[in-house]
Structure formats: C-alpha cells, structure tokens
Amino acid sequence: MTTRQLQVDAQPFVFDCEVQRTALVIIDMQRDFIEPGGFGESLGNDVALLAAIVPACQAVLAAWREAGGMVVHTRESHRPDLADCPPAKRNRGNPRLRIGDPGPMGRILVAGEPGNQIIDALKPAVMETVIDKPGKGAFYATPLQAKLQERSIRKLLFMGVTTEVCVQTSMREANDRGYDSLLLEDCTESYFPQFKAATLEMVRAQGGIVGWTTPSSSLLSAMGKA
Ligand code: TIU
User: Fold this and answer.
1) pLDDT single digits (tens) 190-199
2) Among 92, 165, 169, 172, which residue has the most ligand 1 atoms within 8 Å of its CB, making it the best to mutate?
3) What span, in angstroms and rounded, lies between the C-alpha atoms of 19 and 80?
4) Alpha-carbon distance values, 202 to 37, 41, 81, 87 (Å)
5) What is the chain's alpha carbon radius of gyration, rounded to the nearest angstrom?
6) Which of 33, 72, 96, 116 is 20 to 30 A from 105, comparing alpha carbons?
7) Would the CB of 166 count as within 6 Å of ligand 1?
8) pTM of the predicted model, to two decimals?
C-alpha cells in the first residue's frame, strides 16, 4: 500500500495527514435533517439552508474515494422500540412531532424508516462504514472508535450537519479520544448561520483547542484536485 501525505492549508495552522491513516466522517446527511417533513423541520427549522452544502460534500467524497481513504457515514437513529432514546431527548422542547412519531417520511429518527436514510446524493458505497448513533456525538454508544482502530486511523476530516450540534459534539468526542480533526467549512451547515460561524471560530481558537477548519478547496488542492 502506498502512503500519501497531505499538507492542507488550514486554520490555525497546516493540517498534516496521511490518507491511509485518515477517515472522512460525514455526519447525519440524512433526509430527517435535509428534506421537509423530517426531524429538523419538526423542531421548527427551515431545512432549505442545509441542502446547499451537498455539491461541495459530493466533490470531497468523490476525491476521497478515488484516493482510497476510509469513509464513515453517520445517522442519528434510534431503535424502533426507542430503548436507546432517553425520555429527556424525546420530550425536549415539546416538538410538534416527537422521535418515534409517524411523520411524512416514516417514524421520526427511527432506524430503517425512509427519513432516516442518507440522502441519495451521498449514498454510502458498499464497503463504507455506516454508524447509527443514538446521541449527538458519533462516539457515544457506537462502534466508531473500534472501527477507526481496526484501520489505525489517527486523523479525521469532518463534514455534515448540523455544525454546532452533531458535528461539533462529534469533534469534541474525537478530540478527547486523541484524534486530530479538520472541519471542512463549506461542507457543514447549521439552521442558524451565526451558530455555524461561532462554531468554526471556537473549534480553531486557542491554537486549535478542538481542531482545525478550512474550505474544502484547500483539501482538494492538497490532493491535486483543485
Ligand atoms: N437540531 C439540530 O441542529 N441537530 C440535530 O438534532 N442533530 C444533528 O445535528 N445531526
């Protein structure tokens, strides 16, 4: 196996990684958050904003697949009996539709339902890892760390939604487990633009207290794909 080193221009400083030791982690690009009728809309959000990042995510995913890097897709997803959904999470905010209720795309945030599927544009390939996560973070109560350890992964590239909720929580979990993480700025989005901006700043503040950020063009350029 040939090793391929990348030097990605990023903030607060250059992000170095080796393709075979780095995973692209795509957080919750599922219909529940991106299409009307899902969990995101049931919380009172305008979901149109999130769909705009899909082309940039597709470009990175295509380049990363071509380079032979590990790809991980996550879904925020609960068991049909909701045994993994704390009542506090289900009831918070008294939403119009709760997790597990029938919605226009099936039961909200329940595994196997149409709304819980990753959008077609970013559909996982057969050998790629798909992690169903009951929490906001990708590591809590999932096999993600074991899957990364099987491949000796040390660094993570993050894309997905929403920036300040599941993406940031996952990056903080990764940080405490010793991973270096780079968040691709135009491949993540929030229902609240000011929260996205704040998250990018807080991730890279204090010398990269949580990780690094950069536009996807910097990664693609480091990969010779600009
Ligand atoms: N509500 C919101 O912004 N996000 C979530 O509930 N889950 C994820 O971020 N995936």
Assistant:
1) 999 999 999 9
2) 165
3) 37
4) 31, 27, 37, 30
5) 17
6) 72
7) yes
8) 0.97
